[in-house]
Write a structure and sequence with these properties.
By secondary structure, this protein is α/β, with parallel strands linked by helices. The chain has a domain of 306 residues: TIM Barrel (Alpha-Beta Barrel), CATH 3.20.20.140. The chain is built from 13 helices and 18 strands. Strands 1, 2, 3, 4, 5, 15, 16, 17 and 18 form a 9-stranded mixed beta sheet that branches. Strands 6, 7, 8, 9, 10, 11, 12, 13 and 14 form a 9-stranded parallel beta sheet that branches. Strand 12, helix 8 and strand 13 form a beta-alpha-beta unit. Helix 3 packs parallel to helix 4. The longest helix has 18 residues. The structure holds dihydropyrimidine-2,4(1H,3H)-dione (DUC) and zinc ion (2 copies). The site of dihydropyrimidine-2,4(1H,3H)-dione has 9 residues, from loops. InterPro entries: Amidohydro-rel (IPR006680), Hydantoinase/dihydroPyrase (IPR011778), Metal-dep_hydrolase_composite (IPR011059), Metal_Hydrolase (IPR032466), Metallo-dep_Hydrolases_sf (IPR050378). Its EC number is 3.5.2.2. Keywords: Hydrolase, Metal-binding. Its cofactor is Zn(2+). Pfam families: Amidohydro_1 (PF01979).
């Protein structure tokens, strides 16, 4: 007797597809087989596809974003959108603040998340001030406590690390076996071009893209890879937007290095032309790196198909559009430099890749599962508890209707934002029912679970570290 049986579905993991029932007990998958008998709850999945719940390993929630700017999502609204979009775990960032012990920052994020989440969560650590105490004591202690990944930035005032500081963080990563994620864009190129553009009166949102060219991303990607090679650590290059940066990852992998790449929906379905909107409409698409052109979209698809990219994340970083604390902040109207940087996507990520990737024949369903769940779990120390459908794993499951066709609208996403950059995209396939650790959180499209079911996960060491 199980708590729940999912009956009659077509199950896919990152490697296999098969038809059987899923028996769930105490939040875990207890059996896979034919005719599992009876249970307190039977979910009929005939005609549906039963997949591991999505893991989105790159989301920003309730992160301080500059004076007068407020993120559109707290943990409740972001994880609500996540679970409605078929996710069962998200990995947000905990950002270090200068002169504040890192542990205090971690505690502050816990206070914001605890009791608020619909999905499970687990924090990466953003390191912006690698002091001797942070490097020597705080990071090793936090890795021991299950915060096993760091993010470093090569650009942005207050965030960018020097090459030397990157090496110091990588040395700690090597010692502790933490995984390093890098935001790779050349700080001085961006600062220089931004000053030049502003001096010429080019301040509209579309010049955000002009100020952050492919060369800035390619150069920083190569430099980050070089620092990781010297340090002998694996590296995840996040939010890769174009062929040239991708080719640096490809070359590094050919040299046998453990360099990994992530891409995101904005690099598959948006272009810099979207930043061209009248008045401030283009601000809805301001994110970094910026969306590029049709050739870059094609390159990112190639990277997905050829396994240069191992993870597909949303980089959910939401700011309301029609809001003085969001995209229409007064300062942002004076220059693209001040437009809050980031776009929402945690709810739209999976339907976009399912529809554009699987339904259009670019990738198969097993690759979809790898890109959206299994590889995230392996990379960030959650596998095999998360990211697959196997006996003993958490019952984190999304049941998809592969035939549902609709236009994506913001209202479907239930986040705290007031728009989606993906409005109007035709979507085939939708995650209709989602279970988090065996609990049905979304049933036939309706949110029925309670916030607070989602919990923080301490993570093991990455499979690649
Ligand atoms: N980098 C991110 O990873 N997210 C939003 C903005 C940025 O620069
Ligand atoms: Zn980034
Ligand atoms: Zn991000």
């Amino acid at each position: 007797m199980f708590d729940t049986i999912i009956r009659g579905g077509r199950i896919s993991t990152a490697s296999d597809t098969f038809f059987c029932d899923v028996g769930i007990t105490d939040g875990r998958i207890a059996a896979l087989g034919a005719d599992l008998g009876t249970a307190a709850e039977i979910i009929d999945a005939s005609g549906k596809w039963v997949l591991p719940g999505g893991i989105d390993s790159h989301v920003h929630i309730s992160q301080p974003s500059g004076e007068g700017i407020v993120m559109a999502d707290d943990f409740e609204s972001a994880t609500r959108s996540a679970v409605i979009g078929g996710n069962t775990t998200v990995l947000p960032f905990c950002m270090q603040e200068r002169d504040v012990p890192l542990r205090e920052a971690v505690n502050a994020y816990h206070a914001r998340a605890d009791g608020e989440c619909y999905t499970d969560v687990s924090f990466h650590l953003i390191i912006c001030d690698p002091t001797p105490a942070v490097l020597g004591q705080e990071l090793p202690a936090l890795v021991r406590d299950g915060y096993t990944s760091f993010k470093v930035f090569m650009t942005y005032d207050g965030l960018a690390l020097t090459d030397r500081q990157m090496l110091e963080v990588m040395a700690v990563a090597r010692e502790t076996r933490a995984l390093v994620m890098v935001h790779a864009e050349n700080y001085d190129i961006i600062r220089y071009l931004t000053d030049q553009l502003e001096a010429g009166g080019h301040t509209a949102p579309r010049f955000h893209a002009t100020s952050r060219p492919v060369i800035a991303e390619r150069e920083a990607t190569y430099r980050a890879i070089s620092l990781a090679e010297l340090s002998d650590v694996p590296l995840m290059v996040v939010h890769v937007s174009n062929r040239e940066a991708m080719d640096e990852i490809r070359r590094a992998r050919r040299r046998g290095l453990k360099i990994f790449g992530e891409t995101c929906p904005q690099y598959l379905v948006l272009t810099e032309n979207d930043l061209d909107g009248l008045n401030m409409e283009g601000a809805k698409y301001v994110c970094s790196p910026p969306p590029r052109d049709a050739a870059s979209q094609k390159a990112c698809w190639e990277g997905i198909e050829q396994e240069i990219f191992s993870v597909f994340s949303s980089d959910h970083c939401p700011f309301r559009y029609d809001d003085p604390q969001g995209k229409l902040a007064p300062r942002g109207r004076t220059s693209f430099r001040w437009v809050p940087n980031g776009i929402p996507g945690v709810g739209a990520r999976l339907p976009i890749l399912f529809s554009e990737g699987v339904m259009k024949g670019r990738i198969d369903i097993n690759r979809f599962v790898a890109l959206t769940a299994t590889n995230h779990a392996k990379t960030y120390g959650l596998y095999p508890r998360k990211g697959t459908i196997a006996v003993g794993a958490d019952a984190d499951i999304a049941i998809w209707d592969p035939d549902r066709r609709q236009k994506l609208t913001h209202a479907m996403l239930a986040d705290g934002c007031d728009y989606t950059p993906y409005e109007g995209i035709e979507i085939t396939g939708w995650p209709v029912t989602t279970l988090v650790r065996g609990k049905t959180m979304v049933r036939d499209g309706d949110l029925i679970g309670r916030k607070g079911h989602g919990t923080h996960l301490t993570r093991a060491i990455s499979a690649y570290a």
